[in-house]
Amino acid sequence: MELSSFLLMLNPVPRSKAEKKISLNAENPNSWDKIDRNPLRLDLLVLSAYADNWRSALADLTDIFHQQRRFILAAKFDNVKDFQETINFTTMSKLQALEEKVQVMPSMIRSTIALLDHMLSLNEALFERELYDDSEREEISQALNAMRMRVEGYLATSIALETRINGIFKLVLNAMILRTQTTTADINHHALDLTKESVQDNSVLKLATLATLFYLPGSFVAGIFGMNYFDFGDGAKIEIASNFWIYLAVTIPLTILTGMAWWLAVRHQKHKAPGHHSGRSSSEWEKV
Question: d(Cα 80, Cα 62) in Å, to the nearest integer?
Fold first, then answer.
C-alpha cells in the first residue's frame, strides 16, 4: 500500500491568496517536486501569501491618522465655537479607536517574526539531518531572512505609528486643558471687573451715607425746634410746652424697640449661617 501526504487548509475567504499560490505551484511539476522534498517550502509559500498584508493594513491606518491629524490641527484655538466643533468627544473617540487598532499590531507582528525564527532553526535542523543539500538550505534561509527583514520593517512602522497617535492624543488633551484654563481666566477676569464695579458702587454709597450723616444732626435739631413744643416768642427766651414729655414718651420706647428688632434680626441671621451648630459650643461638639 502506497502512502501519500495531503494538505488540509481552512481559508477565510474563497480563492484566497494562499490557495491561488498553492494551485499555481501544483500545476508546475518542478515546483511541486521541490515542495514535496522540503516541507518548509509549503510553509514559506503560505506565509509569503499573508506576511506582506501588513503593508496595506499599515498604509490604511496611516492615511486615517493623517486625516484626523489634519482635522485636529485645523482647529482655531481662539475661536471657541470652532474649537468645540473640532476638539470634542467624537474626535477623542475616533483617536481612541485608531489607537486600539494600532496597539494590537506590534504583538501580532512579533508572533510572525517568532514563527520565521522557528522556521530558520528548523531549516538548519533539517539540513543537519541531511534531508537536503546546502544549496536548498541556503535558498530557504535567504527567503526566510528576506521575509523577516520586511516584517521587522512593518513592526517598526507600527510602533512609530502608535507613538505618533499617542503624541496627537496628548496634544488634544493639552489643548482641551489649555482651553479650559483660558475660559476660567476669562471668567475670573469678568468676576474681577464686577468686583471693581461693586467696590465703586460701595464707595458711592459710602459718600452718600457720609453726606446723610453730615446733615443728619442739623436736620434733627431743625426738626426738634420746628415742633410746636418750643416757642421762641419775641425775646431771647425759649419757652418749652408743658406736654413736651409726650414726645419723649413716644420717641424713647420707639427707639428702644427699633434697636431690639435690629439685634434680633442680626442674631437670627447668625443662627442661619453655615457652620452654626444650634448654639452648641466647640467643646460640646468635640465631645460628640
Answer: 29
